[in-house]
Amino acid sequence: MPVVMDAVRIAQTLTRIAHEIVERNRGIEELALVGIRTRGVPIAKRLAAAIGEIDGHEIPTGILDITLYRDDLMRHAVGPQPLVRRTEIPFSIDDKRILLVDDVLYTGRTIRAALDALIDFGRPKAIQLVVLVDRGHRELPIKADYVGKNLPTSLSQSVQVRLSEIDGRDEVEIQES
Amino acid sequence: MKKDLLAIADLTREEIYLILDTAEAMREIGLRPIKKVPTLRGKTIVNLFFEPSTRTRTSFEIAEKRLSADTLNIAVATSSVLKGETLVDTAMNIEAMAPDMIVLRHASSGACHLLARICKSRIINAGDGMHEHPTQALLDAFTIREHKKRIEGLKVAIVGDLLHSRVLRSNVQLLTRLGADVCLSGPPTMVPAGIERCGVRVLTSVDEAVVGADVIMMLRIQQERMQGAFFPSLREYFTVFGMTAERVRRAKPDVIIMHPGPMNRGVEIASDVADGPYSVILEQVANGVAVRMAVLYLLAGAPEMD
How far apart are CA A77 and CA A72, in angstroms? Predict the structure, then answer.
């Protein structure tokens, strides 16, 4: 199956996004990153480090688990519930510019859930969306502000993002299912 | 998970850990400014309490509300039970209004099993007579794990009215399942026959039972369930079995003291121990909400009855 991004490409892409974030957000003091579990979390941490290198500021970084906000919970009464893990946002999001980070943007349903979850924590000044890969096929009116790579896919394919923190190596692969 | 949570025996070891891990995530919701998630929106949960309760009923209700379920409480004092309605009739009438879950507390052991057989709603046992109180044991395990980082291999002393205690029966099942070394102590008149077969030791002397304990769990003297004289006087009971600071010193230096509440101060536990540095009694109450949120969430996805 084709590997569409390797480790070098992913690193370059994240550095580029970090630069775009710094360029577009004057007054970086009010920025904060929130990674969506699972693979949005290491991406958010890498972006925080990259922004720190460019700008010298330490950007607060949080973790969001959107399971309890999913719109498909309880729709299929049979079968075990999805695993819920901790949300950790150790700072106030009020009046912050929140950069919401995920690995793949697809239907947009995860982001819808994440927006609801985030807003339960307060009233940010703005929320922007960062994704490593946008594979299309949106089912909701959601658009990313920063995209690592636009990847045209068919519905029968799946996009697998692997990150060294979780999977032992960095790559993005398209799989036929 | 099965449809109902009636007893600890309904849960596999993996399911117990799944509940405890899910409760870790649920606890964070209680620390937010808006303590609510939309997860159980549109689900109706009936809290049907045939026995008095402050902690358990409040805890379930807060857990249900934090998950956005619609909840209603039926206390026996204000219900048609006083007019002579049977448990089954009460349950069938509630069932006719199609709730998703019923949280039941009842004075008769097995009441929850009876309802589980006839109700489509998921049944959660919130204490049935002298049988079980599974969510209490789960929140106890959660509290122990939080302090000790493990349950396997811990020495747990459970002291008090062993005979009438559903908390004991659930805890013995759960703690031995997870590999703790459980030792019981109480008046010989209050030791359930054959309890050793559950893989626990029974010692008459509290002083011996607490030696080297990582956890001391006190049980309430349940005077409302006692039929007959089990010990001469409350004062004598305290002298022989009460948890005093002196007895606590025989345990490990980092021992934690637990009590499921309500406490009889000066009967099973001295006030300075209940309020002392080793006591985690109020943490148990706080953790109860997170553990019950986890149970409600996980059961809501369990398969329905055929």
Answer: 10
For chain A, what is the mean pLDDT? 94
CATH number of the domain at A109, please: 3.40.50.2020
Nearest to A81 among B36, B43, B298 (CB): B298
Which of A78, A83, A86 is facing B303, going by the closest CB pair? A78
Taking CB atoms and an 8 Å cut-off, how many pairs form between chains A and B?
Answer: 56
| Torsion on CA atoms B269, B53, B291, B201, rounded to nearest 10 | 40
The number of beta carbons lying within 10 Å of the beta carbon of residue B5 is 29
Q: Answer whether A68 sits within 8 Å of B38, measured CB to CB.
A: yes
Report which residue type is found at B180.
A
Q: Which residues of B touch A78 (CB under 8 A)?
A: 303-304
Query: Minimal CA–CA distance to B126: which of B91, B95, B93, B170?
Result: B170
- Cβ separation B24–A81 shorter than 8 A: no
Indicate whether this model's pTM tops 0.80. yes
pLDDT values of chain A reduced to their tens digit, one per residue, 177 residues: 799 999 999 999 999 999 999 999 987 789 999 999 999 999 999 999 999 999 888 999 999 999 999 988 877 655 688 999 999 999 999 999 999 999 999 999 999 999 999 999 999 999 999 999 999 999 999 999 999 999 999 999 999 999 999 999 999 999 987
B37/A73 CB distance under 8 A: no
B residues 67..86 contacting A (CB < 8 A): 67
Total domains in the fold of chain A:
1
**Mean pLDDT across chain B:** 94
Residues from chain B that touch A37, judged by Cβ atoms under 8 A, are none
Rounded Cα–Cα distance for residues B186 and A110 (Å): 54
**Domain housing A164:** 3-176
Cis peptide upstream of residue B262 (ω within 30 degrees of 0): yes
Tens of pLDDT along B96-140?
Answer: 999 999 999 999 999 999 999 999 999 999 999 999 999 999 999
**Could you say which of B34, B297, B304 has the minimum Cβ distance to residue A81?**
B297
| Structure ipTM | 0.89
- pLDDT tens sequence across B132-173: 999 999 999 999 999 999 999 999 999 999 999 999 999 999
Q: Distance from A148 to chain B by nearest Cα, in Å?
A: 31
Contacts of B304 in chain A (CB under 8 A): 77-78
A122 and A94 Cβ atoms separated by less than 8 Å: yes
